[in-house]
Amino acid sequence: MKRVVNWLLLMVVLASCLGIMEIVARNLPEAQRLGWNLVPVLPDRMEGIPDKGPRQRVLVVGDSFAEWMEASGGNFVRIAETQLRDQGRDVEFVNMGEAGSGMVDYYRNLVTYGPRLKADQVVIALYLGNDLIAFPGGLPSPDKVGVSLPVPVYDHSWRRMLKKSVLLNLVYRQAKLHIPWMRSGFTAQVVEYLRRRDGKDQAFVNQRLAKLDPQLVQQAEADSINGWDLATALFSPDYYGNLADANPASPEGDAALASLDDLRTLVRYAKTLAPQVTVVLIPPSPWAGERYHDYFRRLGYGRLGPTQAEPEIQTRVKTLLGQENTPYLDLLPALRASQDSAYLDRDIHFNGHGQELAGHELARALAMP
């Protein structure tokens, strides 16, 4: 009996220690990179949304910028909600942000969940860095969404369950830097996909890789930084510059301009769900200031776009929204004026300060009559 009690005490002590370590890990600066891990998949989140009550409901669609740190309440969507409530506004935000999604996903999610949610306002968080990609043939009518758009696949595996622990994720990330067999191979898969798409040979890839910061290459291979950041630099080093210019002669500019029709469709559908629609324009960090350029230069990027003037593609988006009589929130001036860094180091997402800044700007925009 005494041995059983000792084992139980040991288990309690170990569980308590792990719990304390988990709490500490969630408050480390590095944990900001894992802001999406604790967020349930979208269908699970939507199941928990009750029917609309007396509160003013704000429905938000977006990608990882909207989902990031959602579970902890530290993203700009929740910060805006809190600030509006502090101002006496009786509001509730329904955050449908999904990492890795784009305009086609925002549209599908609005069509799928929007009618039941009965929103008073819709906020579209548009990341100008990679959201401006047209769906082939244009977005379908709402009644054709189920057969015309790809069906998302959600991960409910045990691996996703383990990712809910920030402590395990931090340990796992460090281990992958030193133990190659633990790595996912994601970066290599992306590089191979782009190599085949562009018709390049392996010699080209090796030549380009040799020019990059070897530390960042190792971190990309170990999934410590986004493999897409490295792969894009290999095959489209002027990606951000071409995108900013909106030059139809470049693949990035041509794709962005072609996507504006999809943006128009998305905005018009959102207006059938709510009387007020606001589009938040989230710029890539290279456009927000030269202080963010070091990471991209180390990855081998070339032209990164303007840091003073307004990018042409942003002007085009604003023009379209003006034609649609749709308010927008341009975060670029506030991000450029910020004394402190607003983006994570070696990442494209907002850090805690950036989330606070964007949340304040969103609350201010939605508080206006």
What does this structure look like?
The chain has helices spanning 2-26, 42-47, 64-67, 76-86, 103-117, 145-148, 158-162, 166-178, 186-198, 202-209, 214-221, 227-235, 239-245, 251-258, 260-273, 285-288, 293-298, 312-323, 332-337, 352-367; strands at 56-61, 91-95, 121-127, 276-282, 328-330. It has 369 residues and is of the alpha/beta class. It has a domain at 2-31. The chain has a 5-stranded parallel sheet with strand order 2-1-3-4-5, sandwiched between helices. α4 packs across α20. The longest helix is centred in the first third of the chain and has 25 residues, at 2-26. The protein is globular, with a radius of gyration of 22 Å. 36% of the residues are buried. The mean pLDDT is 85.
Gross geometry: globular
What's the total number of strands?
5
Uncertain regions spanning at least 5 consecutive residues: none
Q: What is the count of helical runs?
A: 20
The value of Rg in angstroms is: 22 Å
Global structural class: alpha/beta
Q: Name the average pLDDT.
A: 85
Kindly report how far apart the N and C termini lie: 70 Å
Which bin fits the share of residues in helices? 40-55%
H/E order of the elements?
Answer: HHEHHEHEHHHHHHHHHHEHHHEHH
Widest β-sheet, arrangement of strands? 2-1-3-4-5
Give a quick summary of the entry.
This protein is an alpha/beta fold and 369 residues long. It has helices at 2-26, 42-47, 64-67, 76-86, 103-117, 145-148, 158-162, 166-178, 186-198, 202-209, 214-221, 227-235, 239-245, 251-258, 260-273, 285-288, 293-298, 312-323, 332-337, 352-367, and strands spanning 56-61, 91-95, 121-127, 276-282, 328-330.
